[in-house]
Structure formats: structure tokens, C-alpha cells
RNA sequence: GGCCCCAUGGUCAAGCGGUCUAAGACACCGCCCUUUCACGGCGGUAACCCGGGUUCGAAUCCCGGUGGGGUCACCA
């Protein structure tokens, strides 16, 4: 049987970190087994679903490099791939269930339902639907309809044994049927509920493995009941544990950036997110931590997926992204950097070829220092702002050194006669200063660094000088000489 | 609260009955490299939730407790 898996987001917001990982795991599983990867949109929540969110999710998926074989916007033989375009199908199957007596119309109002829930709660029982409309006659139905009541369709949970779910990551999990009341499969507006639509879709789309977040585990028994009632084979299930925030609760907005687009906006690379997310809940077993997509897809397997939830560690993400930034081609990084520098007011586009080359030098000098590209705004400040403060006591102390005025004067003189300054020239000039004054190491480098940038930390000094250029250096030095 | 899931260092995690005086990565701390700053390299601190079993032997299996998480909608 061929592998067919799907990612089925509901378009009620941007693609979340957790959703992205589900999408990734499904994608990896499909690619690993030469299967088919499908993206389906679960937009049966008419209130909250939007085309903007749908587009956003698809954009994020594209950006991550998770291409799909069937689904929204690429089509396929099992479409449509948007649930609101499949309503006839759900109604058809609901009708089948109705005909077989496995489902029934329910006319209970929200108030009646709420009252029932209160009552059960008060008695300390599990709130669930007790089946008031289970045995309605045709006559009853007509009466309710006449009274203007719109029915929902409920699934009639049959009596029987505990429901067993064989989960590929959790093992066997059982649920008692008594915990499950007759649940709604078609809402009063004719739209199917999640549990029903998901079963109809997964079956009709020939899904072989349902890989999704653990929060869906407790829904699974209802879906199993539906498969059985329809006489359909069940897919394999694999429930992956959740991604947690720092406080160990389900990752949400209050934990910081949760949407893929936010990381994209901050200048993280897609390969970082993919690599990081893959390692969150899955482990290759070896000692390597850095895996590009194409390696992941060769190694991924469900039996190496962890059962315990994982805390999202921003520090490790930052390290990984820095790692990828250090390896990325300079042109790519420069293109990424320009919008941030422009936004900071440091550049105005379009850039002349000369200016672009210069920006490349800026980016090259910072490449080893960045965790994500947005940081360049702060770190590139040293190249764009002349009237900076001397930061911190360390820097002040350094500038108080008695050799400092001599060093800076000497350097200024050499720079002024040297014309254009390349990295090697800078190195040479500094060496000469040291020779002339009989100084070395920190005694000359640190004062120059602080005089030029205001800080004891930053990029390679030779690069800084090359980027500032002769005039820039002299101007900044003039403050001290 | 009921039900379900989970439990190795601060975090991600390897481990799937003996080779565990328990890998690796992030973070942290040292040292080295660099006549500066980083990057990088090397080293270090740091963990099997508790209690019972099973077994010659348990981080690994079973039970209980505790802790954490998820879920209980005409949301997905």
C-alpha cells in the first residue's frame, strides 16, 4: 500500500511552529517512503477561517521548502482540497449514516444542551450528550421543524468494547465508550464538524498515515467509531507530542514568536527552521546536529520520534541559525540584509553597484556575529553613525590610557597619506603604528577600535577600517586628535 | 475534576536488561588560536522524579505515587 500523508491546517491564523513541524514530519515521511504529500485546507469553521490565513500558511510552507504533490493550488485526483468545497460529499455520507440508523437528527437547543451539561457537572459526571433525541419519530421531527428548529446530525455511538488505537509513536491507547456521548457530525448550518470531515477526507483521499499533534489523540476514538460505522479501513495513526513554551505549556503567543512568518521576518533562514523543528521531537540517533532537508528526508523515521513533549529553545535556534548564516553565500546574505538596513534608514534603494559592493563588505564583516539577519540593524550601526557614545566602563578605561592620543594621532597621519584603504592596508598601517611607537596588541587595537566604533566588541578591525575608508577613519579619529 | 499522554543535566536529546564510573548539541565556565573582536578547537560543571516489585543484574520491564502536559464545543 502506497504512502499517502497529508498536512491539514485550518486557516484561522498564520502557520504556527507546531503546525510547521507537523507539516514537516508528514513531508519527510512521504519523501522518505516515496509517497505522496497532500495539503488540504480544513476551513469548516466559517467564523474564523479566512483566505488570508490560507495564503499565509501556503506561503510559509513554500518558504520552508515543503512542496506538495496534491492539494490546494496544485490540484490532484482526489480534490477538491478545501473542505468547504466538499460539502456535498459530507452530506452524502451523513445521509448514508442516517439511512443505516447510525446517526440521527437532534433538535436540542443550545440552552437545553447547556442545562444538561450543568446538571452532569453538578453531579460530578462527565459532561456529554445523553441522547435526548436518539429516538425521535418522524412526527417529532416534523413538529420541531415546524417550530423553526434547525437540526444537527449526531452520530449514534454504538455500545461495545473499549476503543483501541494503535498509535505508531504511542503504542496502544484505549478509550472507554461511555466517555463519548453521541457527537455532532453535521452542524445545524449543514457544515460538517472536524471529526466527521477529517474521516471522510482521509478516507476518500486514501490517506495511509495520519501524522498529527498529540492534541488530536483524544479525538481519535470518535474518528475510529466513524471509520467502523462506515465500514472503512483505518489509516495508521501517529500522534507527535506537543511543542512547549519555556513555562512548559503549549506554545502560544505569550511565549513570543510562534508563527513561521515571524521568524522569516526576523531573518531566520528556512533551512534553520526545518533543521531545528526536525530535531524537536525527532532524533537521528547519531551525534550530528546539522541536517539540511535532503539529508533529513533520507533519515527520517517515525520510530525515532520522541513521546515526550519538547520545549522550544530559542537559544539553540539562534545558534543553529548563526551556523547557517556563517555558511551561506555572501550574495544571498547581502540581499537579505539590504531591507533591514534600508528600514533602519542606513541605505536607500536601489543601490549602485559600488554601493552594493560596499554593503557586501559590511555584511561580510558581520557574518560571524549574527544569529538572525534582523540583528544587523544594531550591529551595522558602527558603519553608519558617526556621533556615537563610548559604551561602558571598559571602553572608557581604554581610552584613558596614556598611549592612546599618540596611537590615534599616528594612525590618523598614516591614513591621511595612504589613500584608499583595503583590509591588508589596514593591517599594515596598524603594524606600522605599533612599530613606530613601540607598542603592541591590545594597546593599539583596542583604542583604535573604541575610537572608531565606540565599543570594545565588534567585527574584525581591519575590516572595519576598510569599510570606513580613509576619510571615514580620519573623521572619526578627529574627535581624539 | 474525568479521561488520555509523558517523565535522563537549565534546554533538545542518545540509551531500547549487563559494554552506563550515562553519548552528543545549545547555554554556562575555563584554556588555546587570533598582536584586536569574533569564528573555530580543546576541556570542565551539570541528569536517570520517588517508592515498591520482576531479575543474577534495571535509566531500561511491571505496579503505585508525585510532577508536567493535552483534552473534555454546533473550534479545529
Automatic annotation (TrEMBL):
GO terms for molecular function: ATP binding; glutamate-tRNA ligase activity; tRNA binding; zinc ion binding. Its EC number is 6.1.1.17. CDD domains: GluRS_core. InterPro entries: aa-tRNA-synth_I_cd-bd, aa-tRNA-synth_I_codon-bd_sub2, aa-tRNA-synth_I_CS, aa_tRNA-synth_I_cd-bd_sf, Glu-tRNA-ligase_bac/mito, Glu/Gln-tRNA-synth, Glu/Gln-tRNA-synth_Ib_cat-dom, GluQ/Sye. ATP binds at residue 253. It is an enzyme of class 6 (ligase). Its main location: cytoplasm. A motif ('HIGH' region) lies at residues 9-19. Residues 3-319 form the Glutamyl/glutaminyl-tRNA synthetase class Ib catalytic domain. A motif ('KMSKS' region) lies at residues 250-254. The keyword Transport does not apply. One of its GO terms (cellular component) is cytosol. The keyword Transit peptide does not apply. Keywords: Aminoacyl-tRNA synthetase, ATP-binding, Cytoplasm, Ligase, Nucleotide-binding, Protein biosynthesis. It catalyses: tRNA(Glu) + L-glutamate + ATP = L-glutamyl-tRNA(Glu) + AMP + diphosphate. Residues 332-479 form the Aminoacyl-tRNA synthetase class I anticodon-binding domain. It is found in: Cytoplasm. GO terms for biological process: glutamyl-tRNA aminoacylation. Monomer. Belongs to the class-I aminoacyl-tRNA synthetase family. Glutamate--tRNA ligase type 1 subfamily. Catalyzes the attachment of glutamate to tRNA(Glu) in a two-step reaction: glutamate is first activated by ATP to form Glu-AMP and then transferred to the acceptor end of tRNA(Glu). This is Glutamate--tRNA ligase.
Amino acid at each position: 500500500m502506497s504512502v499517502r500523508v497529508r498536512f491539514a491546517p485550518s486557516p484561522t491564523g498564520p502557520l504556527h511552529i507546531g503546525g510547521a513541524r507537523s507539516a514537516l514530519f508528514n513531508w519527510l515521511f512521504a519523501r522518505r517512503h516515496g509517497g505522496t504529500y497532500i495539503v488540504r485546507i480544513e476551513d469548516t469553521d466559517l467564523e474564523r477561517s479566512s483566505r488570508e490565513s490560507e495564503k499565509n500558511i501556503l506561503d510559509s510552507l513554500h518558504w520552508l521548502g515543503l512542496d506538495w504533490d496534491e492539494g490546494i493550488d496544485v490540484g490532484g485526483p482526489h480534490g477538491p482540497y478545501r473542505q468547504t468545497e466538499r460539502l456535498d460529499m459530507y452530506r452524502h455520507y451523513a445521509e448514508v449514516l442516517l439511512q443505516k440508523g447510525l446517526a440521527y437528527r437532534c433538535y436540542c437547543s443550545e440552552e437545553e444542551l447547556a442545562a444538561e451539561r450543568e446538571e452532569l457537572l453538578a453531579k460530578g459526571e462527565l459532561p456529554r450528550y445523553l441522547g435526548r433525541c436518539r429516538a425521535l419519530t418522524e412526527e417529532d421531527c416534523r413538529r420541531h421543524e415546524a417550530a423553526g428548529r434547525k437540526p444537527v446530525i449526531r452520530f449514534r455511538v454504538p455500545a461495545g468494547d473499549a476503543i483501541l488505537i494503535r498509535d505508531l509513536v504511542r503504542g496502544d491507547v484505549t478509550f472507554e465508550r461511555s466517555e463519548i456521548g453521541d457527537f455532532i457530525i453535521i452542524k445545524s448550518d449543514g457544515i460538517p464538524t472536524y471529526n466527521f470531515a477529517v474521516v471522510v477526507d482521509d478516507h476518500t483521499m486514501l490517506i495511509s498515515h495520519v501524522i498529527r499533534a498529540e492534541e488530536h489523540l483524544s479525538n481519535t476514538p470518535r474518528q475510529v467509531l466513524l471509520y467502523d460505522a462506515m465500514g472503512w479501513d483505518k489509516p495508521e495513526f501517529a500522534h507527535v507530542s506537543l511543542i512547549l513554551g519555556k513555562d512548559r505549556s503549549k506554545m502560544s503567543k505569550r511565549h513570543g514568536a510562534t508563527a513561521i512568518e515571524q521568524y522569516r521576518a526576523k531573518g531566520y533562514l528556512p533551512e534553520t527552521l526545518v533543521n531545528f523543528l526536525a530535531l524537536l521531537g525527532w532524533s537521528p540517533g547519531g551525534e550530528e546536529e546539522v541536517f539540511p532537508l535532503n539529508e533529513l528526508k533520507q533519515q527520517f523515521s517515525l520510530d525515532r520520534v520522541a513521546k515526550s513533549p519538547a520545549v522550544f529553545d530559542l537559544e539553540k535556534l539562534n545558534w543553529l541559525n548563526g551556523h547557517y548564516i556563517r555558511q551561506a553565500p555572501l550574495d544571498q546574505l547581502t540581499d537579505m540584509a539590504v531591507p533591514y538596513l534600508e528600514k533602519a534608514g542606513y541605505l536607500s534603494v536601489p543601490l549602485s553597484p559600488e554601493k552594493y559592493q560596499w554593503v557586501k563588505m559590511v555584511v561580510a564583516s558581520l557574518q560571524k556575529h549574527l544569529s538572525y539577519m534582523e540583528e544587523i540593524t544594531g550591529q551595522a550601526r558602527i558603519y553608519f553613525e558617526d556621533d556615537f557614545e563610548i559604551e561602558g566602563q571598559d571602553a572608557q578605561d581604554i581610552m584613558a590610557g596614556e598611549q592612546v592620543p599618540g596611537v590615534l594621532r599616528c594612525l590618523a597621519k598614516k591614513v591621511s597619506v595612504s589613500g584608499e584603504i583595503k583590509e591588508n592596508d589596514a593591517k599594515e598601517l596598524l603594524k606600522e603604528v605599533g612599530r613606530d611607537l613601540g607598542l603592541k596588541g591590545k594597546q593599539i587595537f583596542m583604542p583604535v577600535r573604541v575610537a572608531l566604533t565606540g565599543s570594545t566588541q565588534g567585527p574584525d578591525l581591519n575590516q572595519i577600517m576598510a569599510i570606513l575608508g580613509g576619510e571615514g577613519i580620519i573623521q572619526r579619529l578627529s574627535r581624539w586628535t
